From TrEMBL:
GTP binds at residues 112-119, 195-199, 253-256. One of its GO terms (cellular component) is plasma membrane. GO terms for molecular function: 7S RNA binding; GTP binding; GTPase activity. Part of the signal recognition particle protein translocation system, which is composed of SRP and FtsY. SRP is a ribonucleoprotein composed of Ffh and a 4.5S RNA molecule. The lineage of its organism: Bacteria, Pseudomonadati, Pseudomonadota, Alphaproteobacteria, Acetobacterales. This is Signal recognition particle protein. It comes from Roseicella aquatilis. HAMAP family: SRP54. Its EC number is 3.6.5.4. Keywords: Cytoplasm, GTP-binding, Hydrolase, Nucleotide-binding, Ribonucleoprotein, RNA-binding, Signal recognition particle.
Amino acid sequence: MFEALSSKLNGVFDRLRRRGALSEADVQEALREVRVALLEADVALPVVKDLTAKVRERAVGAEVLKSVSPAQQVIKIVNDALVEALGGGEADTGARGIDLNAPAPVPLLMVGLQGSGKTTTSGKIALRLKNRDKKKVLLASLDVHRPAAQLQLETLAKQVGVASLPIVAGQTPLQIAGRAMDLARRELFDVVVLDTAGRLAIDEALMAEVAEVKAFAQPHETLLVVDAMTGQDAVNTARAFQDKVGVTGIVMTRIDGDARGGAALSMRAVTGAPIKLLGAGEKLDALEDFHPDRIAGRILGMGDIVSLVERAAETIDRDEAEKLAARMQKGQFSLDDYASQLKQIGKMGSLSGILGMLPGIGKMKQQIEDANLDNSMLKRQAAIISSMTPKERRAPDIIKASRKKRIAAGSGTSVQEVNRLLKNFDDMSAMMKRMNKLGQKGLMRGGLGALMPKGMKLPGGRKPF
């Protein structure tokens, strides 16, 4: 998400940095380029006008132009304006999240068009509330129009380990909602997720049905699910639902497929409703809080280390990590340990997504893509290690030509890929030995460069950053 916008904005700011002192004309020229970049990213025109007007007003003053680092000041002003456009501000730059501050059972109403990922998102939210907030969740499908919609939600409920409302044929959405709330009160559920029906397009029948259910259930949150890949159509959908039904928050799905990100930047300004959650991918744990300040940081190439650390904390097995760290400190690092590392990284999501959270990585985007750093590469490397015997994993030095052919055949890969994995393992082992040799003080002095073996390359053949 935002890759194209991030690339263009960083190009503008790089040119500003090279100029050192800035004139008012320099800033105006940069703002014209920022405006074009925002429009190309599919940001709504009124939002572009408002954002650039705010930046111009703050950036053309003597305080900025005569400062020690005017380019950095301009970038800071653009960052603040982006945070504001995304729904943050001085008093509110934190995550929105789902508001559960109400007497149990708390009803959550899920609304949106058909195909936006509403039912899958309902399952993701249930899993999140169960695992992270330790809530007892009931899922209920009110979709009586789409074939097998209720069965789909029932299947999702089983997958995430929460209860679903038993299906009774012939009931209206209002009757299903009443039964769900009654069951939730009797069986002491904390949250009830009511998944309403969608349509291929907005129509009066859809809005009337959603409004009727909302009036009855009195949901504490009405969450609109929109597909980020539909761009300005997603914004128009959000505006229509806000005008006719009223929503308390927006969940944007398929953000991993939306390289422009204009819908996210337009959503708050056009609808007044905050984006609360982002969905990336089909995995049921692929749901994250929306932080305006962190998203602005990603757009401007500043990275998002906080979200990366949070994701690691949620997905990495702490006991496993501690055992691996202890082995590394003793200089013990086997191919089994390497496979374990690959598995832990895979749990965190796509490699390009993880790397995108690191500061300055935007400039390396093309190199990362050329290196083919995706999770299929991790799986292939894991398959190669699985095809080795326990003895080979403990002592990879014994793996010669005939063994490499057998391992490649067993893992469905090539001998070249086996060689590459063994080279990566050797490089990582050398890094571990250097780490032990340098100690903490030596590592602080030498930094990452002190760890890198000479000529070390990324899995796709590129040199490290």
